[in-house]
Amino acid sequence: MKRRTFITGAFAGTAALALGVNLYSPTLTTASDDIHHRVLFSVFIPIFLDGSLPEVANHREMAINRTLDAIVQSIDHLPQAQQDELMELLDLLEGRFGLLLLSGSMTPLLGRDPQQLIDMLESWRYNFLDMLKTAYSGLRELIMASYYACPEHWGNLRYAKPTFLVSNAN
Cβ contacts of residue 158 below 8 Å, gap of 6+? Predict the structure, then answer.
């Protein structure tokens, strides 16, 4: 065997192995848990809602969990085409290769500092590619709308539910 043949074969084998590892996705989680990508959203919620979430850890956790539930409901009400686009984005963000393409780093989002996440999202926000701008605005609008859809968060906006539709029992 020639040295060039060996090196070429080793390179091709390594590339095939790397591609196979990136494409392999084990089904260790249930479909209902995985379909809504709660862990991924729990990383983005504190970034997008900085200053809106309660400071007390227990209340903060409850607000994040309530927002995650509202995100699941919001996704269910989106048109199917938008649901598909969102799931494609979230799948890319959970995979190493997609994360490398979208953020320039293979470090999982859970392992990043908040400032690194902010920098990544800001680069999306002001990117020349419309796809990344759309990804940023879609994630932001989904999280913000889901958070403020919960009546317990309306106090931050000084908003009160309209009462003209409620009949008085006087």
Answer: none
